[in-house]
Task: inverse folding
């Protein structure tokens, strides 16, 4: 089945409520390709490797979480950016990217899908008073040792996380996919036993250790694989088109 590119973009933007979200990059159609879509390839980041995989799969549209044109970047179309855009344009492939809208969506968002994958019952926002914080709060049905939960993360995400063990069992959890290590203070204020995100900074260790909580850095890429897959599946069902997720390995 074919869907007009303009209709797909409009309905997906409405579903994700992109107009209401202030972001660091444009959300939606970043590169325009052919006017009709029957096959979507999704992935975390619009790298050259993912674009080349989409070309091999004869995609009409590439759907990603990390697209292009970030605030503060050099806008010149040279080097790595030129190679990526040239490959998309030469093959008439559209690029559709959603950043914060895909982090916060309650159904297909990175944080909602990550929480469900880890067996966490979602209870609410990590910090209702701070709109910059896009993470969530939730709990496990029964308390686990930090080592047990770290093993669950490893088995679910397919990579060994970095982690710090706190001084109590883990039941109440805060999490924010990607580079959310700076929100550990909000998690501590919320009374969590463990905070999980993708990355760690040097000071994150001290914040966790001195406040007695466990901390897990499970990988930026690894924690943001679920949302774009879920959105791609939503598109497939909504529009009757094909969808395939391609994971280009990234250890960070």
Result:
């Amino acid at each position: 089945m074919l869907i007009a590119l303009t209709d797909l973009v409009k309905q997906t933007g409405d579903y994700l409520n992109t107009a209401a979200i202030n972001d660091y990059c444009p959300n939606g159609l970043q590169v325009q390709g052919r006017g009709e879509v029957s096959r979507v390839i999704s992935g975390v980041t619009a790298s050259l490797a993912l674009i080349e995989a989409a070309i091999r799969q004869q995609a009409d549209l590439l759907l990603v979480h990390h697209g292009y044109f970030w605030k503060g970047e050099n806008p010149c179309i040279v080097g790595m950016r030129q190679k990526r855009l040239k490959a998309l344009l030469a093959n008439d492939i559209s690029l559709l990217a959603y950043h914060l809208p895909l982090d916060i969506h309650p159904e297909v968002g990175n944080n909602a899908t990550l929480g469900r994958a880890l067996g966490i019952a979602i209870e609410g926002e990590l910090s209702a008073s701070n709109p910059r914080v896009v993470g969530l709060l939730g709990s496990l049905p029964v308390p686990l040792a930090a080592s047990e939960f770290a093993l669950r993360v490893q088995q679910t995400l397919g990579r060994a996380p970095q982690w710090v063990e706190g001084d109590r069992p883990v039941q109440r959890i805060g999490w924010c996919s990607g580079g959310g290590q700076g929100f550990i203070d909000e998690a501590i204020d919320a009374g969590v036993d463990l905070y999980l995100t993708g990355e760690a900074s040097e000071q994150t260790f001290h914040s966790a250790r001195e406040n007695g909580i466990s901390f897990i850095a499970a990988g930026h890429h690894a924690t943001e694989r679920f949302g774009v897959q879920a959105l791609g599946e939503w598109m497939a069902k909504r529009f009757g088109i094909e969808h395939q997720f391609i994971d280009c390995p990234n250890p960070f």
In short: The domain at 3-99 is CATH 3.40.1390.30 (Udp-n-acetylmuramoylalanyl-d-glutamate--2,6- Diaminopimelate Ligase; Chain: A, domain 1). The chain has two domains: 3-99, 105-223.
